[in-house]
């Protein structure tokens, strides 16, 4: 068979990327189906400002690279994933990327040893002096020790369905302003797997306003959930509402048969709050991202 490159260009490409990510996921992988759904599901294809290339053999995806900011003077930022059983596909993908993005920076999780080996073969290295932004991967086991959800005066519940999407998308925009998430884009994302409203947790104040949320993504094949994104309106922060939404989503994962859940938080001092929240919900950090150049 011949490994051929294809650019993600529509819903079929998103489906192929989801299948590839689900099939190759491990407990130490950076990519999860939730990352794919959040990044590309709003558009049912390429996200603005990105280019995603996939290397396939007989219709089966073996490696993929997403480039962000390819037009920047200092080079593109890439995320990279490959089938552990096919290092040749990883090498083919990186060989192509070096010609297209000569000033690229590639982010992986330090536990993805097969990707680190491929990057080393391609001549890329980490800089031990690099003190720029990085992410910490956290995980929690969904066993009987999960804390109860506690949010006095507030209601924590799943999204009730499509009718609430304008309020839900509006909440995201208010938390993360400026944001590109429109009502229409949220509807597109919510209309297809792997989105499920029972994992889209919202927190409602006594006046009925949505004030916090945690969006969960569940991979039923690997029995693993991902939290992405999470937020609270500024005037309702420091009341434990994000933690309550997180815990409610974890309980929903467990009810669906989940074994584990993961979340990524900035680990550097430039954005310190999230890394203090997740341990209170039972998460433990197990790895950080590394940048290869």
UniProtKB/TrEMBL annotation:
Residues 154-293 form the N-acetyltransferase domain. SUPFAM superfamilies: Acyl-CoA N-acyltransferases (Nat) (SSF55729). It holds the Pfam family Acetyltransf_1. GO terms for molecular function: acyltransferase activity, transferring groups other than amino-acyl groups. Gene3D superfamilies: 3.40.630.30. PROSITE patterns: GNAT (PS51186). InterPro entries: Acyl_CoA_acyltransferase, GNAT_dom. It comes from the Bacteria. CDD domains: NAT_SF. This is GNAT superfamily N-acetyltransferase. It comes from Catenuloplanes indicus. The lineage of its organism: Bacteria, Bacillati, Actinomycetota, Actinomycetes, Micromonosporales.
